[in-house]
Amino acid sequence: MTVVEILCIAIGLIVSYLIGSMTPSIWIGRIFYNVDVRTKGSKNAGTTNTIRVLGPKAGIIVFIIDVLKGCLALYLSNIFVSSFLYDTPLEMFNIVSAACVVLGHVFPIYEGFKGGKGVATMLGVLIYLYSEIFWILLLIFIIVFIIWRYISLGSITAAIAFPITYYIYSAYWAKDIDPILFIFAIVVAIFIVITHRNNIKRLAKGEEKKFKFKKTE
Fold first, then answer.
1. Among 52, 50, 56, 42, which residue's Cα sits nearest to residue 26?
2. Cβ distance 88 to 68 under 8 Å?
3. pLDDT tens, residue by residue, 175-205
4. Percent of the chain scored above 90 by pLDDT?
5. Which residues lie below 8 Å from residue 39, measured CB to CB, with a gap of 6+?
6. Who contacts 44 (Cβ-Cβ below 8 Å, separation ≥6)?
7. pLDDT-derived band of residue 42, with 50, 70 and 90 as boundaries?
């Protein structure tokens, strides 16, 4: 691998991280509401807390942007390596790029490395890398949410179901399990569960707030 190719890989990953670091919940709150969502509610720079603090209109916009930036980061980072990376090396690059955009969301360089939990951005990554099972995971999330009204529980359940769903789909439908994507699915599930550890504690104690489509702060 040449120096230029290594440089292109590095630039691609940096681009993913910088896109991930774009935090619409903080920026919209600061510009249009004069509020830092990280100081209200659950103090999380994500969709749920944005709806809780700023209202559903702002929350929907934040959600869409966070999802799109997951897709956009992978798309743009691929431009830097598409001429010399193929097959497994390209898959590995996409996995690392996906990790970078999510880490950017969780630890945004523009906002003192204090961001959200990365669920919506990870959703964008799944749309890009796992389009064949995305709708199954979305359905799982929706069912859990409708029954219990907890965004966190829906996210955790869908995350745990992610590697299981990918394995079943790949083994019995596609007849081809990609070990790289399977391992990444496991890592994602663990990551989502860890970032929701406080929610899990509140759920266990019965203290988690049920989601409402309105401003509550």
1. 50
2. no
3. 889 999 999 999 999 999 998 999 999 999 9
4. 84
5. none
6. 37, 38, 116, 117
7. confident
Examine residue 214 and state whether it is found in any structural domain, yes or no.
Answer: no
Residues in the chain: 217
DSSP characters over 160-194: HHHHHHHHHHIIIIIS---HHHHHHHHHHHHHHHH
Range of the domain at 53: 3-205
pLDDT tens, residue by residue, 62-89: 999 999 999 999 999 999 999 999 989 9
Which pLDDT score, from 0 to 100, does residue 72 have? 97
Compute CA 26 distance to the chain's CA centroid, rounded to the nearest angstrom: 16
Q: Residue 210 domain-assigned?
A: no
Sign of CA dihedral 13, 16, 19, 25: negative
Give the three-class secondary structure for 31. Answer: helix
Query: The whole model's pTM is what?
Result: 0.88
Q: Give domain status of residue 212, yes or no.
A: no
Q: Quote the tokens at residue 23.
A: 């935090």
Residue 123 tokens read as 């959703």
What the block records as the tokens of 135 is 């709708």
Residue 42 within a domain:
yes
Of the candidates 34, 72, 51, 32, the one whose C-alpha atom is nearest the C-alpha of residue 116 is 51
Instruction: Please report how the helices 24-32 and 47-54 are oriented relative to each other, as an axis angle in degrees rounded to 10.
Output: 10
Q: CA-CA distance, 163 to 130, in Å (whole number)?
A: 11
